[in-house]
């Protein structure tokens, strides 16, 4: 009797499991499946990403569904469209030997009438994002009044995305007698609140501290100057020619900007974030799964839970605001027993975050240095040689060979090899010959913007004031709430007519700049700048402010000259110097976070709508992470 059989699963599931190639249940499956099969109970299960939660609820659910009854019996809520589709797919695979069992995905951005029609045809299981589900309920297109099971998958992320009210409202539309199974990686207060409000005596399962990836993911960090972030990313990609990676940025704007730069520099990259149309996102995911894309630059929400095998590297281009999120990111690699690497590009001022993450993941990071140009050239050269060596020869080429032999007849084998590999190699060599090595310049230089440290007050200018109906208390509350800061974290708020000033501790500066700057306040775009005047803060820092206000922040200065084209990039060859003209910066103090100061991302002016992946039409409160 195999392990799955011992858990009590029936023949049709066992057959499907065999097809899937699962040999042994994962820990969360081992714990959850028997409980869910044997009891009619509520359940709270805490387990990291990649631990096999879908099957942990999917198997028992399928076994308990009455496939002969066409009514909707189960609702699975999940945070994003991608996850919704992924779960639907999995459930379909699990239930492929069960006649008459239908699972329908319900998510924003696709035709609601078509989804309603599918539901109407008979869907025992509906997998939905909360926003779209709420729409369907409001329009009377679904009936979940008689369901037996409701599953909240990635509950923490759903709440994080601002779906609390939708979830409450949806759950209120379901019968009290149903069973609710809540799956989550973490248990923040909001999740506990949902559990308390909507569940009775839930069984509780916690799967160790262990991320299934943790044994197979190694963690590395690279310290760079803020303005070298992009160059570091490029070098890491160049030093890993077979990289197949998810690159995480903090905001949609950064995600778009980094992806655009990579594409411009000839990498096989694409962006995945909530501002793309559904068709674009589908296209991106398809290309990524098909490996036409080597670097998928994504926001946390868009990439949450995405299950693509064989991702070699997760790159934290910027660290997430919430440390917990790091787990979700690194869980994109090291899946299904494969080895993976999670890389963090950090500035010195962010180093303490690495230590906090170490405590949470209970694993050590290895500090590494960005490879030098020479090292990269060497890696690329060997890679190319191996590639030539292993290339499969199509004998079609035989017809052309005589003419080609003739061209090469005066060259020795050694000469020929040298020239062949030089074709590709020259590009890298020429590029890196001109570059300084970023790793060896860790020390601060005079051109470096003032380092902002925890413990130092930072004063900001913000373009809203009394004219926008703020007094100092209201502005303080608005900033606190938007940034999810504590009671005393915003101080020295000084409201003028059309603008204001306020202070925070330097530890919050990145958050202020990444969330508040560009924030869309009812159609008004908020602009925040670090003020040269520290407002007579807790200490005097005038001497150190001089670094601010330099115009050419960011890595753009680095991008002049010819970036090496990647093999398989668009058109080999040398690039023109189009990056070399210094562009004007959009804001006065753009020097601080180099990677955000690109004029294109400022110009783009994408309003900082709240990210809500599959349900972008609905307003949400700002995400915290
Ligand atoms: P989670 O929801 O916990 O993040 P998933 O349910 O998405 O995890 O599963 C992660 C991956 O592991 C998927 O590719 C899934 O097919 C695979 N998987 C799940 N259970 C098993 C198992 N028992 N044996 C092998 N692979 C499994
Ligand atoms: Mg999952």
Automatic annotation (TrEMBL):
<comment type="similarity">
    <text>Belongs to the DEAD box helicase family.</text>
</comment>
<protein>
    <recommendedName>
        <fullName>RNA helicase</fullName>
        <ecNumber>3.6.4.13</ecNumber>
    </recommendedName>
</protein>
<dbReference type="InterPro" id="IPR014001">
    <property type="entry name" value="Helicase_ATP-bd"/>
</dbReference>
<dbReference type="InterPro" id="IPR014014">
    <property type="entry name" value="RNA_helicase_DEAD_Q_motif"/>
</dbReference>
<dbReference type="InterPro" id="IPR011545">
    <property type="entry name" value="DEAD/DEAH_box_helicase_dom"/>
</dbReference>
<dbReference type="Pfam" id="PF03880">
    <property type="entry name" value="DbpA"/>
</dbReference>
<dbReference type="InterPro" id="IPR050547">
    <property type="entry name" value="DEAD_box_RNA_helicases"/>
</dbReference>
<dbReference type="InterPro" id="IPR005580">
    <property type="entry name" value="DbpA/CsdA_RNA-bd_dom"/>
</dbReference>
<feature type="region of interest" description="Disordered">
    <location>
        <begin position="529"/>
        <end position="625"/>
    </location>
</feature>
<dbReference type="Pfam" id="PF00270">
    <property type="entry name" value="DEAD"/>
</dbReference>
<keyword id="KW-0067">ATP-binding</keyword>
<dbReference type="GO" id="GO:0004386">
    <property type="term" value="F:helicase activity"/>
</dbReference>
<dbReference type="InterPro" id="IPR027417">
    <property type="entry name" value="P-loop_NTPase"/>
</dbReference>
<dbReference type="InterPro" id="IPR000629">
    <property type="entry name" value="RNA-helicase_DEAD-box_CS"/>
</dbReference>
<dbReference type="InterPro" id="IPR001650">
    <property type="entry name" value="Helicase_C-like"/>
</dbReference>
<dbReference type="InterPro" id="IPR012677">
    <property type="entry name" value="Nucleotide-bd_a/b_plait_sf"/>
</dbReference>
<keyword id="KW-0547">Nucleotide-binding</keyword>
<feature type="short sequence motif" description="Q motif">
    <location>
        <begin position="2"/>
        <end position="30"/>
    </location>
</feature>
<dbReference type="InterPro" id="IPR044742">
    <property type="entry name" value="DEAD/DEAH_RhlB"/>
</dbReference>
<feature type="domain" description="Helicase C-terminal">
    <location>
        <begin position="225"/>
        <end position="378"/>
    </location>
</feature>
<dbReference type="Pfam" id="PF00271">
    <property type="entry name" value="Helicase_C"/>
</dbReference>
<dbReference type="InterPro" id="IPR035979">
    <property type="entry name" value="RBD_domain_sf"/>
</dbReference>
<keyword id="KW-0378">Hydrolase</keyword>
<feature type="domain" description="Helicase ATP-binding">
    <location>
        <begin position="34"/>
        <end position="205"/>
    </location>
</feature>
<feature type="compositionally biased region" description="Basic and acidic residues">
    <location>
        <begin position="529"/>
        <end position="612"/>
    </location>
</feature>
<keyword id="KW-0347">Helicase</keyword>
<feature type="domain" description="DEAD-box RNA helicase Q">
    <location>
        <begin position="2"/>
        <end position="30"/>
    </location>
</feature>
